[in-house]
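Standup notes
- HV: blocked on the assembly model, inputs below
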Amino acid sequence: MSPIDFRTSLAGLNLRNPLITSSGTYGFGDEYKDYCPVEALGAITVKGITPEPRLGNPLPRITETPAGMLNAVGLENPGLEEFLRSYVPRLQKLSTAVIVNISGFSVEDYVLMASSIRCDSGMAALEVNISCPNIKHGGMHFGTDPRSAEQVIAAVKRKTDLPVIAKLSPNVTDIAEMARAAAAGGADAVSLINTLLGMSIDIDKRSPAIANTYGGLSGPAIRPVAVRMVWQVAQAVKIPIIGMGGIITWQDAVEFLLAGATAISIGTGNFINPRAPLDILAGIGQYCRKHGFKSSRDLVGLAQMRR
Amino acid sequence: MKINECPGVVRVLKLLNFLTAYQVSYKGCESMLADQEVIINEVLGTVDLGIRKMVLRGPIALEAKPGQFVHIQVRPGLDPLLRRPFSITAIDPERQEITLLYKIKGKGTELLSKVCPGQMLNSLGPLGKGFSLPKRGDLWLVAGGIGVFPLYALAVAAIKQGLAVRLFWGGESYSLLECSGLAMWKELELPVHISTIDGSYGQKCLVTDILDDYLQKYSQGDLGLGPATTGKPVQVAVCGPKGMMQAVTELCLETGLPVEVSLEEHMACGLGACLGCVVTMKDQQGKVRRAKVCQDGPVFRGKEVVWDVSY
């Protein structure tokens, strides 16, 4: 039985497999080490970094919903300076590619982050978060207007020597148009989808269930929306796609690959099963073996060709 | 750019790292995510209060410390999606059993109450940082209602270590205390000071009233606390409703007693990644920071906790 070839090229990165963990669900790479060694992952994406430190939103920040959850953490993070000083040296030692998610409130913020986190930091890529729904005047503005999206991606691209991944918001009418804007701005890849804006009311307290009123919906509940959007974006742009949105099992992951995602990212799934990436990778391998595929790359976009 | 900094070389170095590190860090992966067999899942006291006792058998019992918790998938599938955290009431490493006491409050605990002995529950744990155990002296425990649950394991460990343990426990009524393990506590034969709001058992007052009384005696050097007491308390551990824990913390700090509090918040991952369960802490310089109940706690030093929830 020959081993399945999982190697994945994406935005100039050579990953050992197509499994990535999503920003905001994997801390800074240490949290899951007892359950899932980072060496087993293609890449990890760290919690979104902003120029200044942020305490984030008050509690409650999360609430469970049918087959999903809402969160409004509000980009709690140590800030750029502390990230570079305390976190980057630790991240450099991790035996996996590290994607740094950057967030901001203005083009200047993004430019500052892009000029500060350089290739020689050992970080693998920048994921430009233009889709955070949980902060007022936050990144989502850049993610819902194609012209702003193109501008901010182009500005980041001019300042960095790292590959640039644009993280797209699903809270738009036409996701393909947003992906085209990111590609026009020079993005090397797109990742989608971020959370869907949602809300839940605590009927006992008769008030919104989370302090921020609105939150981002994630988990299996959003998966069909994510698969549809990955499918549409795969038809709209040539740059590779990191597909995510409610991936819990290997079957979910295969669905995203077949829809056209070059790599897949696990988010909320890590919260339920800290070994999820290992289980998913094993499942993809078995699927490939069963159906005669030598590489997980062979699955990418296969459903598109069958239409 | 130096040779060891160019991306291709970095990647090769990382791969080499990976090959050497893989075996090492892969070990112990499964030790903390384990299926635990349900041995007992029964009503404690009267049915209407919805308090239950669950005994789980598995390797978590070998590692668990007082104040830690387990994060349990109450049933397989997507609803409910998230695990539920439960404090550990008793730890028996010899039989590989942990005891959880829980109150049916929502969907998760309702489903958990339906689980039968013999079934397996996927459990993550033990998680978090528990109570510290002083080497010697008196340990005072202060509980509000079902906040008494995690204090039991601490009491047992403290007695084993030769500490003099004293419990202050307040609840709504006798039946709440009875259903929350009063009989278990009586078997420990500790000095127990009980208050109820309705006066159906112990003194009709708040637990903080009794504690205040004892703290005053302590600060005046008029201990007179009976033969179980070897001296003054060296530490106080508290668990209960937030307002009660704040009041107890303030009382203890006024008297100069170190106090540890066990906090609770909704959480998703239990491992410090989702940032759903953060609380606010203030250091001696007054600098405010977030801490995670799941990873940095659930037990925190009372003097650092910022009780104002508007942060």
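- HV (later): unblocked. Residues 8-57+74-202+222-305 of chain A form a domain with the TIM Barrel fold (CATH 3.20.20.70). The radius of gyration of chain A is 18 Å.
- Next: hand off to the docking folks.
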